[in-house]
Every structure is written in C-alpha cells, then in structure tokens.
Amino acid sequence: MNKKLVIFSVFAALCFINLMVSCSEDENIEVGEADQNAAGAVDNIDEDAVLGEAFTRGEMLTNWADNIIIPAFEALSGDMDSLSLAANTFTEIPNQENLISLKQSWLNAYLAWQTVAMFDIGMAEEITLRNYMNVYPLDAEEMTTTLLVGGYDLTSVNRQDEQGFPALDYLLHGLANSEPEIITFYTDEFDGPKYKIFLTDLVERMRSLTYMVLIDWKERYREEFIERDGSGATESVNSMVNAYIYYFEKFLRSGKVGIPAGIFSNSPLSDRVEARYREDVSKELLIKSLNSAQDFFNGVHFSQEDSGMSLQGWIDYLEKTRDTHHLDSLINNQFALIHAQVVNLNDDLGVQVTTDNIGMLETYDLMQEIVIFMKVDMLQLFDIKVDYVDADGD
Amino acid sequence: MLSVNSYFSKTTSSAPLAIFRIAFGLLMFLSMIRFWALGWIDKLYIQPHLFFSYYGFEWIKPLGDLTYVLFFICGLSALFVALGLKYTWAIITFFLTFTYIELMDKTTYLNHYYLVSVLSFLLIFLPAGNYFAWDILRGSRKLFPQIPKWNIDAIKLLLCLVYLFAGLAKLNSEWLLQAMPLKIWLPTKEDLPLIGFLFRYDWMIYLFAWGGALYDLIIPFLLLNRSTRGVGFMMVVFFHLLTAILFPIGMFPYLMIFSALIFFNFQFHQKIIEGLRQVLNIKNRKIHLIQDTNFRHSLIIRVKIIILALFFLIQIGLPLRYVLYPGNLFWTEEGYRWSWRVMLMEKAGSAQFKIVDNASGSWFYVNNEDFLTSFQEKQMATQPDFILQYAQFLNVHFSQQGMKDLGIFVDCFVALNGRKSARYIDPEFDLTKGYDSFAHKSWILPFNE
Question: Which of A48, A329, A392 to mutate to test the interface with B (most CBs of B within 10 A)?
Fold first, then answer.
C-alpha cells in the first residue's frame, strides 16, 4: 500500500509540474524572459561545452525590428507624405509639370512599398495592409463607376481591387494615351472634381494606413515582437519566417512572375503584371522586391550600411553542428542566378511575356528552386512548421 | 492442448477491466470534447474541398454538417462506455463512429488514433461492462466478479506489442547514430523553463534518443514483472509526461499512462473501485453474484477467441509488412502506417503539379491552395499515395472542365531528417497512368543517402 502511495504522489507531482511547464510556455512571457536571462548566464559559463557562439531569437528579432522593418516603414511613410503633397499640388493645379512630379512620387512610394510588403505581421496583418495597398489586377471599370457615383467605402473588402498603387497607376497613366489627355479628366467640368476627390482619397487612405502600421510598430508592437522570442508556433520568429516565405511564394514568385507568365492559366496574361498602365517599371519593382527579400534573408539593414543576425546567420549557426549543406550559400547563389536572369528581361514584363515568355518561365523556375530551399530545407533546419496548423501529432 | 485449455479456463477479478473501461471511456469522452472545442471538426472535416481516403475506404467521407452529429454520437458513446451503460452497444457504436472519423481523411492519421480504434475493437469482445457498471446497478446485466484471465491479458498483449514495435522501429541508424529527428526538434525547446537548457547539449539529445528506444523495449517487461511494476509505472508516467511537454501530441500520453494501470493486480483496482464507491456514494448492494460462470464453454466465447487470435496475428503482421517493399521505408512510406512508428522522422516537401494538354502540348501549374488546406498540402507533398490521389482528383476536376487527353506531372522535392532536399517523384511519370494498390509504386525515385 505504501509503495502505491509513493507512486501516486510522484504521479501527482509530475502532473503538476507538467501543467506548470506547459502553462508558462504558452502564456507567461515574463517567466520566459527571466528564463532567457538564466539561459544567457549558463551560456557564459559553459561556452565551450555549448553549441559554439550563441544564437538568440531575441537578437534576430531586434535586428529585424530596429534595423529593417521599422526603418522600411519609416521610409515608406515619408514617401507617402511626398505622394500626398504631390497629389494635392496636382489636384490644385492639374498641369503636366505637376502630373510628372506626382508620377515620380508614385513610383518612389511604389518602390518603397516593395521593401515592406513581406512584413505582413502585427498591425499590417491585422488590417490586411497588403490587400488595400497593392491588389492587382485592378478592376478599372468598377473603380471608375465607384469614383463617378461617389459615396464609396474604401474600407470595404469588395473595393480592395479598386484602390492602392494599382488604382493610382491607372489614374496617372491609364486614363488616356498622353499626359494632356489624362489631365483633361481632372479638368473636366462635371467629372473632374470627382477624379480629384477620388485621387486624394486614395492617397490619404494609403498614407494613413501606412502611418497606422508605423506608429503601432514604434509604440506598441516592437516590444511585443521582440518579447515573443520563443520557439512556439505563435511566437514572432515562426510567424515572421512563415510570412516571409509566403510572401516570396505567393506575391514575388507567383504574383510578379508566375501569373503574368501564365503558369496557372495555359497562356501568358500580360495584363496581370504589376504597374501595367505605367508599362515600363514592372521589372524595376520586381528587382526591388527581390533585393529586399534577399536583404532580409541576410539581415542587411535598411540603410544598407551594416547587417545583423537573420536567417542566413541562423542557418550558419545551426549547420555548425549538423551535416552541412551550406544552405545559406545555396540560397544566396540562387538569388544571384535569379538576378542575372531578371536583368535581361524587358523593362515591361507585359512585353516580355508576349514577346519571349520563355525568359519569364525560366525566372519562375529559378524562383521555385528558392521556394524549395526555403520551405523544405530551411524550415526543416529551423524546425518551423509551414503554415502552422493547430492539430495533434504523434 | 491441455495447457491451452487450462489457460483459457483461468479466471481473475473483473476489477482491472472495469477500471480500464472507465479510464478509456472518460479519456475518449474528454478528447472528443477537446476536439470539438478546438474547432477541429470544422477545420479538418468541413472546410476542406477534398479528402484523402485510405485505399479501399474511398466510400467513407465526411458528412458535411452531420459530421458534428457523428462526433456527438462518438463522444456520447464514450461516456456510456465509461459509465457502463448499455456497454455492448456503446462500445460497438464508439468503435464504429471513431473509426469512421479516422477513415474520413488520412491527412489526420496518427498512431494514437489508430490505437484507440484498435483498443475499442478489442473491448467489443471483452466483458468490461459486467462489473462496477451502471447496467449492474439497474439490474439489467449480470454481475461477473470473475472473468477469464485472458480477457485482461489481451489488453496487456496489445499494449506490449505497441511498445515493442515502437522500440524496434527506433533501432535504426538515423535514430541511434544521428539522433535524428530529435536533433531537429529538441534544440528548439531550448526556451522551456526548467529543462530547456538541457537541449543545448548534443549528448543530451543522444541520451533522449537512446533512452527513448530503451524505454519502449523494456517497459513491457518491467510492467509484466511484479517486482519491477512500480518502477515501470513511474517510468511510464515520467516518459509520457515528458513527451507531453515536448511535443504536441494531445491526449496520447494520458491514454498510455492510464492504460498501463491494467498491469497492476486486482487488489489495486478493487481499492480504486471501493474509493470510487465512497466518493460517488454508490451503495454496495447485495446482488446475486454469479460465481459459476458458464462462459468458459460457450460457443460464443470460442468464436471470440478465434476472432481475437486473428486480430493479434494481424497486429503482428502489419508492422512487419514493410519488409515486402523495396527501398527505404522512411522515404517511400510503403508499409509505414499502422506500425507504431512514432516520432521517427521529420519530413518536409514541396509539390508542384503540371497539367499538360497532350493534344496541344500547352500546360499550366496547379495552385494547390485552390484545392487543399495548408495541412493537407503539407501531408500530400511527402507521401506518394497522397500525391497520386490528389493527381486523380485533379484529373477528374480538369476533365470535368472540358479538358480532354490530359497528363499530370509533379515536381516534388522532399527533405528527410535534415538531409538536403531531393527529387521525390519521377517528373516524367504521368500520374494519370498511376493507380493505387498495395504494390510498390515504381515512380517514387530511389532514396540517395
């Protein structure tokens, strides 16, 4: 009987510890943090016995937030301010000079957007920033109706393909074939004011959404992002890496290259390229987003002046103790191959897919190889579950 | 023959089986509630567009909103099993509904769900409702304080098989020499309080790997032997609670812990029953006890024994069937399921399907997101039978859209246990020409070490 009692007390004690451990793992961030410090102390003592130089998720998260993400949003926000100014100047005096300057501001902001599009996390994820900034193809017909009828609600999910950069692209380049003709839309006695108001509304919405995300990063989310430095599926590193790969796969590989090249549709779709009305910048936008993706992978600061811990460094750290494949070099070499391929494409990817789609398809295939390196090899190395699904395993 | 006969005539107390029934029923009831409360019925069985069937069970599909009813009946029958209310019907209903649920989509296949199905099948043939059960209180069922000893041994045998096969499966170079896949999984648990720091040490990972294999192999003997039973049970509790902390494995650890109680002697179970009687305030009514049981000689019992003998033959055969397949088991997964191979590999894959119009030569890729949930896509990309079934679905889908004479090819890459990803399926093989069977799938590319 006594023996049984002992067994049961042990059983009960272990159950209790179990409960405690799994609870603190889930919720108690403060305990996690205290433990992190304790782990850091262990690190100093046993540096030789432990896996070499320490890698901490916290360090990586801090680098991402302070040196990459927040500066990128700051830059976009600044470009949004300029865009807003240019839009106001143009709507006050709709002439060619002001149109040209507005177009330039639009392009600057669009390029800046490519540096933040992958950060679909925190407030950006909450308000689905991407869906209001850059959904293409634009529904130009519906947008025109919306604009002329007035009383629109740009926050509606149904209006996502009638706003953002693609809508501005149309309003600045697509209304007619020449700049003077485009300007007449804004000077028209009846509809001109409607175009002006809509243009201003679009820009203001983009500006305020960007600002909202930036402020949230600075005042609230940065702290949470860095504090959630665990290895769990809902912690920052897992969420960010998943968001990054998802962006690369869906928006960079498929959106900018695959879909226009017709890989999902049997034949090329030249009207699906980014900035289709401007015509000559889709390659530039693609290159910008590729570079941003590679910079994030390597932890290169937004300023380009320095770099810190990121996925490349993490791979390097983990491969020290395992069979090494130099996965980080494989990925960087692949980025270089893509780059070499993309440089030769036409400035207008819409022209590229109609004249020589093979070049686009080859670009897609090179990007697909990176997807495999990242989604299969890298995630396995990191032990991060892709698109984490909350279900039991065995 | 005589000794066989005398073995099957041996009797023992009903108490252990009654406790097992109660624990099993309650745990299953809880796990059904948990599954429902976590919203998994909707996510796993309502939302997906298509479901991956087991070969031969293509007719079993989720029932739309009625799937909730299925889970309700399953949970309710588990509760009935625990209470011992209409036991025979309850356990049959539980076995059928639970197994139906598991057969709906193999995306969710887990060894421990299979264990539940197998255990509940076994329980159908055991008189677990004849002691400390509601039916007895109502007087609607005869009380048997004594039951054949083999009834309890059958459960012990099944549990021993589970442990032994799980242990044998770990005796491979990946697990023992490379400590894979624990070397991938454990270091990410570095931030766990109290024990996290352990996983920074390489030798600790090896200790876990060797310890885990040793545990699985010796625990049946520790539990069977009276003098080591206490130690064995403490190890069971420790091991399964540890896995509960480290891995997302749901109710499984608790099922294994409570199941192990069956190894204790009947006095132990009798004490639990007395305790429960007091707590629940159930009067120990004087019921006419049936001492002389006629079950020993009945034809039904003989039939039961034959069925269970076949059942155990299958239980031993299934985990060994992999030897009939060529190639690396972890790579092809032919003969992998139903074999108590738990936590043995980390596999990740990516599969891009190409639909070719054979007449014109034009082609396009499939956006898997259009048809599969992310969970299904993940499972599909590393398992050949999923890839084939998905291709067959795509074939039907695009044929219905008016495409004639199409070919389906896949660009599939898989990484296994930390190796660099490699091409998995022959990219030249037209999957519309493939068919599922128990035979080896020759279009799986060979595994290169």
Answer: A392
- In chain A, what residues touch B376 (CB-CB under 8 Å)? none
- Out of A50, A262, A386, the one facing B200 most closely (by C-beta) is A50
Strand-by-strand arrangement of the B347-357 sheet: B363-365, B347-357, B406-416, B422-423
Quote the minimal CA–CA distance from A10 to chain B in Å.
Answer: 8
Q: Is the Cβ of A381 closer than 8 Å to some Cβ of chain B?
A: yes
Phi-psi sector, B289: left (phi>0), alpha (psi -120 to 50), beta: beta
Amino acid at A369: E
Nearest CA in chain B to A35: B193
Is some CB atom of chain B closer than 8 A to the CB atom of A243?
no
Q: Does A42 touch chain B if contact means CB atoms closer than 8 Å?
A: yes
Residue A87's CB is within 10 A of a number of other CB atoms, namely: 25
Q: Is B369 in the same domain as B249?
A: no
Plot region of A151 (φ>0 → left; ψ -120 to 50 → alpha; else → beta): left
Q: Does residue B222 sit in the same domain as residue B352?
A: no
Are B239 and B305 within one domain? yes
User: A368 CB near a chain B CB, below 8 Å?
Assistant: yes
Contact A375 B194 (CB under 8 A): no
**B211 and B136 in a common domain:** yes
Decide: B236 and B223 in contact? Cβ < 8 Å.
Answer: yes
| A326-365 pLDDT tens trace | 999 999 999 999 999 999 999 999 999 999 999 999 999 9
Whether residue A218 contacts residue A65, with contact meaning beta carbons closer than 8 Å, is answered with no
Give CA–CA dist B418/B348, Å, rounded. 9
In a domain, B328, yes or no: no
Tell me if B352 and A368 make a contact (CB, 8 A cut-off): yes
Residue B185 has pLDDT above 80, yes or no: yes
CB contact under 8 A, B201 and A7: no
CA-CA distance, A77 to A79, in Å (whole number)? 5
In this prediction, residues A155-173 reach a mean pLDDT of 95
Q: Is A177 on the interface with B (CB under 8 A)?
A: no
Judge whether B76 lies within some domain: yes
Same domain membership, residue B260 and residue B173: yes
Percent of chain A with pLDDT over 70: 85
User: Between helices B252-259 and B229-246, what is the axis angle to 10°?
Assistant: 170
**Strand partners of residue B410:** B353
Do B294 and B352 belong to one domain?
A: no
Best residue in A328, A372, A373, A385 for a mutation probing chain B (most B CBs within 10 Å): A372
| DSSP state for residue A322 in the 8-state scheme | S
Its pTM stands at 0.87
Q: Which domains does chain A have, with CATH numbers?
A: 53-229 (1.20.1420.20), 231-386 (1.20.1420.20)
Alpha-carbon span A53 to A35, nearest angstrom: 19
What total of structural domains would you count in chain B?
2
Q: How far apart are CA B150 and CA B300, in angstroms?
A: 15
Q: Which two tokens stand for residue A40?
A: 């850091």
Q: Is A260 in the B-facing interface, judged by CB distances under 8 Å?
A: no
Q: State whether residue A291 sits within 8 Å of chain B by CB.
A: no
User: Do B261 and B380 share a domain, yes or no?
Assistant: no
Residue B422 lies in a domain: yes
As a whole number of Å, the end-to-end CA separation of chain A is 35
Nearest C-alpha of chain A: how many angstroms from B147?
25
User: Is there a single domain that holds both residue B245 and residue B316?
Assistant: yes
Task: Write out the residue range of the structural domain in which residue B142 sits.
Answer: 2-322
